[in-house]
Every structure is written in C-alpha cells, then in structure tokens.
Amino acid sequence: MTVKQISFEVNTDPEVIRFTHLSNGAVWKGPLTLEQYADREHSMFQGNLCQKNNNKKIIEKYGKTNAQWLGLKHFILKDKSLEDKSKTSQIVAGCETLNRIGFTAIDGKIVPILVLCIGGVFTQEAHRGKGYAKEMILGLHKYFDEIRDRATTPFLKNMIITLYSEVEEYYARLGYKSDHAAVHKISQLDTLLKEYCIDGKNVKYLDFDGYDDLIQLQSNQMERDILASHLQDPSKFVFGVKPDIHNYEWFEIRDLFIRSKLFPEQLDKKIAFGCRLPSNSHVIWHHNWNGNSLILIKTFIANGDDLEETMGVFLQNAVMEAKEHNLSKLEFWDTEINSVKYPKLFKILERDSKNNKLYLTNGSLSAYRAPIGFTNDQVKWQENTKFCWF
C-alpha cells in the first residue's frame, strides 16, 4: 500500500491557480461554462479587494507586516507519492482564503484585526474519500497559526478564521462552530409593492463606486456595536468584518461578469447596485442571476429615520430593480432583515408563506474558529450578514 506524502503549499502560479478553478468549477460554476467560471474567478482576483495587500494606502495605514496578509491567497495540497508528470499531477486538493480587515475590542478600545475566510475547498474527484480535504484544512491551520505565533502586532495576534460551509457541519470536527443565518426568499413582489412599499422622494441609485461616505457610516456603526458588546461582556471575543467599498465591488464584479455571459442582451440596460436616501440611509444589493433573485446585501438606516418606512422605500426600489432585470425574487438574510426589527413587514410576508419562503436553511453555513485564548463559545460574530460572504 502506497503511503501518502502530504505537502501543503502556497500557490502563486497563475497556471496552477487556473487549474484549481477548472477543478472546482463543476461545483460552483452554475450555468457558466468551466472556462467562463475560471475567467470570472480571475477577473475577481484582479479586483481591489483581492489585491488589498498591494494597496499603498493600506500598507501606509496598517504597515507592510500586516498588509501583506490581506487579499486573496491560494493554497494546494500535493501527495508526492503520486507520479510527478507535470506541475499539477500531484495536486489532490486546494482552497483559498479571502483575508480582510476586521475589528475587535480589547480593553475597551477598538482594534483592527485580520479576518480570514476559507473558500474554494475542493478535492480532485479521483482522490475523494481519502482524507485529503481534512489534511488541506489542517495544513491551512498550521500555516496561519505559525504566522499568528510569530507575530508581534495585535492585527495578526488576534486573527480569526471563518468559512461558509456547503457541506453542512463537516467543519465542526475541525474546530469550527456554526453561526447559522436563516435566509428569506420573497416571490410575491406585487403584494409587497401594494401593501408595504413606499415611493420615496429624492432617492438616488448607487453606481459601481462613489459611495465611500456610506461605507464609512457602516464602519462607524460597527465599531460602536462591537464596543458596546465588548463592554457588556468583556470575557467575549467580539469581531466583525470591516465594511469596505472594495468588498461591495467584489460582488459587483461578479454580478457584471455573469450578466455579460448569460444575458448579453441586457448589457444596454442601466444597472444599479443599491440606493440612498437624502438622510444617508441606504441599501446595497446584488443581482443573483444564477438564482433569479435580487439579494439585499446590506441595509443601513440613519438615526431619526423610521425603520419600517425606510425599509418600505428600500424594498420599493429593490422590487423595481428586480423587475427591470427580470428577476422574480428578493432574497435577504435574517441577520440583516428580521421580524424583530420589522414586524409589519414580516406580518405581510408570513400571510403567504407558501410563496414567500421564510427562515430557510442557508446553503452557505457560516462558521468560525476561535482565536487563541478563547473558546468557540466565547466568540460573538457581529453582523454576520451577506456582505461577509465568500
């Protein structure tokens, strides 16, 4: 019996990166072809979020020691007991991490930290059932744990790893705790328009960029919320992914690429990525062409604005955007829009629970691995909503 010779490696070779995307694309490509899927992943990799480690302003603000670990990182697992016929012949598994700036609170103060999110985990079909996926994740843990243990900055010392599992609770055995966020899918858009939506005045649609001021408002609110949670229970590790316009751009690049391949006839139609009110209340959305829905990624309601009335304006514009692009549903996570904050909305939605699918199990099960010095039960994920997703 051949003994496995495992080698966990960082992958920076463009040819090998494309090979990994062609290998995992059968699971995640949706209606795209494999080549289109690999092109999409490359396009997103070139975006500002995935290249954050090369951003001069970020390097100046956080220092090169910290900034180098930001952005999208690629990893492969080789079994060197296999025949070495090419640069990819020994690759049995792979994954990526999207590494972003986050916040936590230490001793009553907000501190920036590194938040990793694992994605793109795959095992080559011919090698499944042999424990390679587990070896892949354990290798990733060892790699980043060593970075953390060598670090001298709070940014790296307090790093935390998250993921979105599409294999249910598989990662629990590897030290992760799930933090489920239910999903709501709304099909009765005309009922929503008639009974809840409000035609707001002076509403402006959001373009690809140019709304940094709104993201700063989100960031300020998150800092306040994390600090409040920390002061309420200092024994907990409270963290969140810092709102970042480049994070929303990442969704937009994905959005525009898929539309260009699946619906080229719509390219002349103007597309919006959300809307803002004069008060700076705003909603950001994503066109989920694969799922025939408009996903509300983030909502922000300014102090003094009525929650339900403002949500009525958001949904009015979201429904009109969905209809403009022939999308039949609205979709949002319960951590973003829920019955506690919006009882009037949910009373209307629940009247037609046959067509409005509420409290669905999220196909991307969010989970985290506690940082050093904490147990999973001592961790609180602040604003675990769609905008964190990878």
Question: How would you summarize the topology of this molecule?
Answer:
Blueprint: E1 6-10, H1 14-28, H2 34-45, H3 56-62, H4 64-67, E2 71-79, E3 91-106, E4 109-123, H5 132-150, H6 154-157, E5 160-165, E6 177-178, E7 183-186, H7 189-195, E8 204-205, H8 212-232, E9 237-241, H9 245-262, E10 274-276, E11 282-288, E12 293-300, H10 307-324, E13 329-333, H11 343-350, E14 357-360, E15 365-369, E16 379-381
Parallel strand pairs: 4-5, 9-16, 12-13
Antiparallel strand pairs: 1-2, 2-3, 3-4, 3-9, 5-15, 6-15, 7-13, 7-14, 8-10, 10-11, 11-12
Helix pairs in contact: 1-2, 2-9
Describe this structure in words.
This is LYC1 C-terminal domain-containing protein. InterPro entries: Acyl_CoA_acyltransferase, GNAT_LYC1-like, LAT. It comes from Henningerozyma blattae (strain ATCC 34711 / CBS 6284 / DSM 70876 / NBRC 10599 / NRRL Y-10934 / UCD 77-7) (Yeast). Residues 201-390 form the LYC1 C-terminal domain. It holds the Pfam family GNAT_LYC1-like. It is a single chain. This protein is an alpha+beta fold and 390 residues long. It has 2 domains: 6-181 and 365-388, Gcn5-related N-acetyltransferase (GNAT) (Aminopeptidase, 3-Layer(aba) Sandwich); 183-360. The chain contains 11 helices and 16 strands. The strands form 2 sheets. Strands 1, 2, 3, 4, 5, 6, 9, 15 and 16 form a 9-stranded mixed beta sheet that branches. A hairpin with a 2-residue loop joins strand 3 and strand 4. Helix 1 packs across helix 2 and helix 2 (34-45) runs antiparallel to helix 9 (245-262). The chain is globular, with a radius of gyration of 22 Å. The protein starts with 5 loop residues before the first strand and ends in a 9-residue tail after the last strand.
